[in-house]
Amino acid sequence: xxxxxxxxxxxxxxxxxxxxxxxxxxxxxxxxxxxxxxxxxxxxxxxxxxxxxxxxxxxxxxxxxxxxxxxxxxxxxxxxxxxxxxxxxxxxxxxxxxxxxxxxxxxxxxxxxxxxxxxxxxxxxxxxxxxxxxxxxxxxxxxxxxxxxxxxxxxxxxxxxxxxxxxxxxxxxxxxxxxxxxxxxxxxxxxxxxxxxxxxxxxxxxxxxxxxxxxxxxxxxxxxxxxxxxxxxxxxxxxxxxxxxxxxxxxxxxxxxxxxxxxxxxxxxxxxxxxxxxxxxxxxxxxxxxxxxxxxxxxxxxxxxxxxxxxxxxxxxxxxxxxxxxxxxxxxxxxxxxxxxxxxxxxxxxxxxxxxxxxxxxxxxxxxxxxxxxxxxxxxxxxxxxxxxxxxxxxxxxxxxxxxxxxxxxxxxxxxxxxxxxxxxxxxxxxxxxxxxxxxxxxxxxxxxxxxxxxxxxxxxxxxxxxx
Length: 468
Prior knowledge:
mainly alpha, 73% helix
């Protein structure tokens, strides 16, 4: 079920909100748990059993880890639990990839049936792993109430596409939280903002990007290639940050404070800064549960670079079982390593240097998105070649009109402005007094009606990160 669907907005959500607020306190978590399972079953009626199995594995595993006192046995219990989580993830997400590549490059003869990946398995698996590791580290106690643990893993606002919520950030809210009218109103407004990002901007950018990327590489002229990847750059940001906004807003409606997942990453001056602003929940997960355990930056520059290389290799592979995702992760990792060695990530920049650094970071990010969007490595390399084929510069001007109209141009402008934080500042400025607040509320109501009209008229409405 999509957040940006009429069924969710006008049927599922109103029913859940009504039941939640009419229920006694002791039943509120149960209402959310049942609602979350129904939400998942709507799209995955069979694979919900995989998610329930993950809950049971980590419920038992964390209790065992918590009870064992001897460190070697405690580590063994943790290892078994995390290994079980990763084996499930490996089979459903990566089995096809390894089988295909063994058959293709190692001349293997693995006879296999394509495995279908359950929606959201990467997200809820990482949440489960963070929980059992937190228990191992003594940061939290093992949750004895399986209903509460299940709610943590299945909570529908962030179940399918994040943010990745870490148990130590939210367990107190599962145990005891307070809902207020102020928070509920904030949640509604945040949901509308996220919905608008998705439906108005991301979906429009997707139309441009898809129409260009579906063509053969030989058909891409220089400016058309740049238009396609710029449109995709805006699409993936507004698609994913829009989903995160909706998740944060929905959580706040039920009294949960989910941490921010995006902080205007396209204004970054380095790739290091970009990863502090992009998909924050994932980057902090890898930092806490992979980079630091590997040694972080505590064992010299060479070991630090190796650790960063591993982290971004895994980051790319987490996003998808394909070489293009691995290359995308390594592309970012190499820039991070370069910035670590040169000290660029910590360097104080003058205004002119800052402008150059911003161009450098944005250029690296945009080129990286070509790998992320392409179906194959050959296509990605061909597309990048088209982006720098100056011999097609003049013909490109005439072809841009095939992909653009006045509305799409306007959405590109709004997308560029919106990715800088200007609109956020305007909305926050409008919250100062009642007159400004009424203007902002009218603006948000208009956005909601606009989204309603677009959803009613269109069938194109996918979320990019659902496939991860």
